[in-house]
Design a protein that fits this description.
Layout lengths: L4 E6 L13 H18 L4 H7 L1 E12 L8 E11 L3 E10 L4 E14 L10 H6 L20 E2 L1
């Protein structure tokens, strides 16, 4: 069973655009960062992908920008897996600002399993399907009162 995964970041000056808030492209980069940190924590990260000769690659993103993030703010990047089948896993994201208890961003990614050598679709091995389990229905990923103070920091 997979769990909610939190990554705490602080907005950096180079992430700010001409409108004085975090550039939209940065949010997509943060999606990648938190997903990568999560798979590493699950024990099936990039090193294991190479060893297993197959990997998960993003094939579709959906994003919704709700509020602006500003320079120097602390943001919690939260992710979890919400579905899986033989070829695809589906990941959700919520980016949260603790200072004012605001959800800044929501998103999702469909990931496909591919053979690294060819880039062709490949059924997930049992190693993948065991590690990439969906979040239990009983867990509420929008409840930030369960925020883990021992969260990984980027």
């Amino acid at each position: 069973m997979s769990t909610i995964f939190d990554l705490k970041i602080t907005v950096q000056p180079e992430q700010i655009d001409v409108l004085n808030h975090v550039n939209n492209v940065v949010y997509v980069s943060w999606m990648q960062d938190v997903a990568t940190a999560h798979i590493e924590a699950l024990g099936l990260g990039l090193k294991e992908y190479v060893e297993l000769k197959h990997a998960m690659v993003a094939v579709e993103h959906h994003v919704q920008y709700r509020k602006a993030a500003l320079n120097g703010e602390e943001i919690i990047l939260r992710t979890w897996l919400n579905d899986i089948n033989a070829l695809y896993s589906f990941r959700q994201y919520v980016f949260y600002r603790p200072k004012d208890k605001s959800i800044l961003f929501t998103g999702s990614t469909q990931w496909a399993c591919v053979e690294i050598a060819t880039g062709r679709p490949k059924r997930m091995s049992p190693t993948f399907t065991q590690a990439y389990q969906p979040l239990a229905d009983s867990e509420n990923p929008l409840d930030f009162s369960i925020y883990d103070a021992s969260v990984v920091e980027l």
